[in-house]
Design goal:
65% of the residues lie in helices and 3% in strands. It is globular and about 55 Å long. By secondary structure, the protein is an all-alpha fold. Helix 1 packs across helix 10.
Length: 313
Amino acid sequence: MITEPTAFQRYRSSPNGKTTLLRLILGTVVIVLIWTLSTFAVVRLGWGLVGLVPVSLRPSGYGMEPFLASPIGVLTALVTFCGIWAGAWLVMRWIHGEPLSSLFGNSHRISRSDFLKGFIAVILTSIFSEVLLYLIDPVVQRGTIDFTAWLLALAPVALLGFVQTSSEELLFRGYLPRGLASRFRSPLVWALLPTLVFAMLHWNGSSTPAMNAAALVSVGVFAAVLMALVYSTGNLGAAFGAHLGNNLFGFLLISHQANLSGFALFEARSLEGAGWAGIDAILIAGIGVVSSLLTALLLLHPRSLLRVSPDLG
């Protein structure tokens, strides 16, 4: 595999003098605060609109849990991530005195070609991992959404999925690593810390300890691959595309999460449910790791047709 440290060196050197550690901490707090407030507001709004949407989008029961597991709840949850975009724009403008586009890459633009390559690579490795998961547990059933409704949902789910995944990349592979790398040379600070925080946010209290560990390992390795893509390119494009491909595969094709299966054509056994054995958790974690490493191979190997390109500005 090949990396282009020059691209990241330019990326980490691009912040202006206002990107101090104190301002970075303050900016992170502001982004999280705006995200939290917008989440409460959007969820409240979505809850109030339940009676106005088609019956097929409504929750099957009363309460917040059935609401968030319903199609309208999934859409509402995805909209909440607009708060990260709004917070990042405000922080970059007023705390750091830079345009938001500074976070996109050295060219101040998202690389469209790398975005597409990242998306294709993850779709391919998701198919590979799905075959292996099927060998562990071959229980896959048709989702509750009919095909016509699924076709109508493709565009809005893809758009809101992009909002969600790109906002996470903007914060965890853009704002935090770029700011920390400008102050600290060690990747243990600018790469590992954001990756660990990102992985821990995927902790699920309803899962067994073994399955939680499997999920954290899988998410952590995938996040490390996304960080490696930013390091290799100095641009968020490939990470944007890879993350979107990963989530849309689960949102729209085969879901392994019961609370996010409202728009999926097929539903497999929920990874958050009970009944998984310890060996299952180990195998599932291994599949996640191998899939992420194959993604890295497809995008970083010099002979790969999907090899990403450095953004040198």
